[in-house]
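Write out the 3D structure for:
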Amino acid sequence: MIAPALALAAALALGAADGGTAVFRPLDFRHHAVPEKVRLGDPFVYELQITHPQDQRYELRVPRDLGDLELAGQERSRADAADRAVTTFRLRMAAFQLGKQKLPDLTFDVVATDATSGTFQTQGAEIEVASTLSDEAVQNGEPLYDIRPPDEVPVRTYRLLWALAALAVAAALGYAAYRWLRRPRASVPAKAAPQEPLEVRARKALDELRAQDLPGQGLYREFHFRLSEVLRGYLGERYGFDALESTAPELLERLRRLRTPGLDYGEVERHVHESDLIKFARARTTPDACKRELELAYRLVEATTAAAMEPTTLPPNLPTNPPRTRDGVRPLP
């Protein structure tokens, strides 16, 4: 099982930069500015679209010195297909120098599920920056002036200003009274049904997966994707971290550091590596092997549930049930 993983990592990395960092090349890369011609100081969007294998994750290194450019914000989105994924970055920018401007060269950090990491570097696109003056003003040779400072306006009396202020206050009070009278009446919320225990939801998800018999239909990759989702969701909710969004090395590192009574870490590590080879490197497997992985998931749920229910001895002056932080944890459906 180790040889296919090494072959996959060697196929992804094309070379090594200084310090031993691998240099990645995506399946396809496209970038452009929208619009390609903007006025001085007007916002535009620099869109970069990276097509890459599904087991890779791209993160942008935000450049520090942009010169005559300004970065107002960025967005990142990802769309997965059957055998690849498309990650799109949209940078909201503005330019403050006339003429053709070269957008900055960007560097992306790349992490693969087989613990391979490296970088991907791009050359910046070009954008044309035009003056804020109209074409007629430019032809007539009119100069571009700076912002004029505020002028003092003499006021003979403040009675009009006081009257306008009183009208504004009266209008605000009237609008507030209108909104208060038209406010929705509080309704008694319906009592939500209690959620089933974690281990019950996990067993139901495994029972449903077994009933579908995906390996019997030759759908081995689909089976391992579904099994990985159920097992990651259970482990993340059991131990309080977002396992569904973690890469394989991140998942194993979190489990290694956390206190996980009843969990066979060696079995989990073996399952994660073999499952990733089937999902991403299309390694061969059999229905019997899939059945053993499903039985492993049942055993992990039973063992960790039993260990979690055992009473533990705590030092004096400590609560018997310390609260667990659940922020960011996606519960198992």
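Residues 224 and 275 are 6 Å apart (CA to CA).
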